[in-house]
Design brief:
The structure is a single chain. The chain has about 425 residues and is α/β, with parallel strands linked by helices. Helix content is about 25%, strand content about 25%. The protein contains 9 helices and 24 strands. A 5-stranded parallel sheet has the order 5-2-1-9-19. Helix 1 packs parallel to helix 7. The longest helix has 20 residues. It binds flavin-adenine dinucleotide. The site of flavin-adenine dinucleotide (FAD) has 32 residues, from helix 5 and helix 7.
Length: about 425
């Protein structure tokens, strides 16, 4: 009998728990260690920040769903991993032994890398966590009462750009509805070398789509930008040219700002020789397995993947939902193989299917695989994306509540688009 512990109950960890449970017989134990009792649907956060959703609308209390599936749930922070001895220490002091560990801890948000950034003692808002988005709502309400300049964007080293565009466009949509958009000059600040790069060197025509959306919505933008500091109501950033030489120093006022920070690994995984790269992202091989500790797998934002290429201001590659699901499926197969005495043999495709909502319209893209060069490199836009994202939110939250892995119609629809989670060779 083996004990498989999943560390982190987010978009990677919960599907991992359901898939591992459905694949292993009941002699094996599956335990999830999460930071709280709720699953929070991160993609809805920009909606929470403008009041289109409440916290309660976008989260699921996980005790019952896990219990129904025979998964033990411990909603308690893990403070340390003893990888050589296969143990976790939890905040209350409990020590948990495991045979296999799946790390799915997502990112730690590196606000401290820019003085004055972030909601914890800084001057900018965040939509990275659902709690941040709920707090940001109060700042949004103040903006509506006393309209003034807005800055949205991402810090140098960020890897997740989609939600920054989403927030800028959703904010624009809501401010128009409130009839105050004319009093709100908006600026988008990003380390990307061009709008729509997204840390992926673009997908299909995301460059054209994002630029034209920014133009149509009267949002000015600065690329190759490194935010250097933020004070109350003022942002300082430096713009670089395409060779990485300093081009111009900027200072812009704001009354409301939402900036996505760079990511790094969470405290519990840091400083373990062989487990992570210097920023704390988990090193993995082509089977999602750590090369030093072969009983540790990792899925989601916490894994180390290289940027798609150098950029004048550092950017990282995003890890998107479907890509994470492919990591989960490969991990599950490989742990199951190992438990039946076989070698891991499944490789994730890291395919990406993404819907970016702009409040009234949106952009969708399919990148097969997510990291270029690609076999499929498509993007499209329209009102249908907005409705598809709302539909997806409802569908996904229901799937999490019911403990479904991948219903046949989902697999069938994905196959029709040529999107699969596994491939036999890298
Ligand atoms: C605002 C936003 C919107 C996004 N929208 C989309 C989208 O529309 N489509 C898409 O494909 N991708 C989207 N993404 C990217 C990605 O899909 C999400 O970030 C996704 O939530 C990542 O899943 P994860 O499991 O890796 O991390 P998370 O979902 O962050 O889950 C990690 C969990 O582990 C917990 N944890 C961390 N450390 C510990 C510890 N020591 N002990 C216990 N628990 C711990 C965390 O608290 C968290 O609950 C978005 C990202 C953001 C930030």
């Amino acid at each position: 009998m083996a004990t498989v512990v999943i560390l982190g109950a987010g978009l990677g960890g919960i599907p991992a728990a359901y898939e591992v449970r459905s694949k292993l017989d009941s002699s094996h134990k599956v335990i999830v260690v999460g930071s709280g009792k709720f699953y929070e649907f991160t993609p809805s956060n920009p909606w929470v920040a403008v009041g289109w959703r409440t916290l309660e609308d976008t989260r699921v209390e996980m005790h019952r769903p896990f219990e129904r599936k025979g998964i033990e749930f411990i909603p308690e922070w893990c403070t340390a991993i003893d990888a050589p001895n296969r143990k976790l220490t939890l905040k209350g002091g409990r020590v948990l032994e495991y045979d296999y560990l799946v790390i799915a801890t997502g990112p730690k948000l590196a606000f401290e890398e820019v003085p004055g950034l972030g909601p914890h003692g800084g001057f900018t808002q965040s939509v990275c966590k659902t709690g941040h988005a709920a707090d940001s709502r109060a700042d949004f309400d103040k903006l509506v009462e006393n309209p003034g300049p807005v800055i949205v964007g991402a810090a140098a080293g960020a890897s997740c750009f989609g939600p920054a565009y989403e927030y800028a466009f959703i904010l624009d949509t809501e401010l128009k509805k409130r009839k105050v958009r004319d009093k709100v000059p908006m600026h988008f600040v990003t380390p990307e070398p061009y709008a729509g790069h997204l840390g992926l060197d673009g997908v299909g025509d995301t460059k054209g789509l994002m630029e034209s959306e920014l133009r149509e919505r009267h949002i000015r933008w600065t690329c190759n930008a490194k935010i250097t500091s933020v004070e109350d109501g003022k942002m300082h950033f430096t713009e670089f040219d395409e060779d990485g030489n300093e081009k111009k120093k900027h200072e812009l006022p704001f009354v409301h700002s939402m900036i996505l920070p760079a990511f790094k690994g969470v405290d519990a995984v840091m400083d373990i020789d062989g487990l992570t790269n210097p920023r704390g992202f988990i090193l993995i091989d082509e089977h999602q397995r750590n090369p030093t500790f072969s009983n540790i797998y990792a899925v989601g934002v916490c894994v180390a993947i290289p940027p798609v290429g150098p950029t004048p201001v550092p950017t990282g590659a995003p890890k998107t939902g479907y890509m994470i699901e492919s990591m989960v499926t490969a991990t599950t197969h490989n742990i199951s193989n190992e438990l039946s005495g076989k070698a891991p043999d499944k490789h994730p495709t890291w395919n990406a299917v993404c819907l970016a909502d702009f409040g009234d319209t949106g952009v969708a893209f399919v990148a097969l695989p997510q990291i270029p060069p690609r076999n499929t490199n498509w993007s499209g836009s329209g009102k249908w994306v907005h409705w598809a994202k709302i539909g997806f939110e409802k569908y996904y939250l229901r799937k999490i509540k019911q403990g479904k892995v991948e219903p046949f119609f989902e697999r069938y629809a994905m196959r029709l688009m040529g999107v699969q989670k596994l491939k036999s060779k890298m």
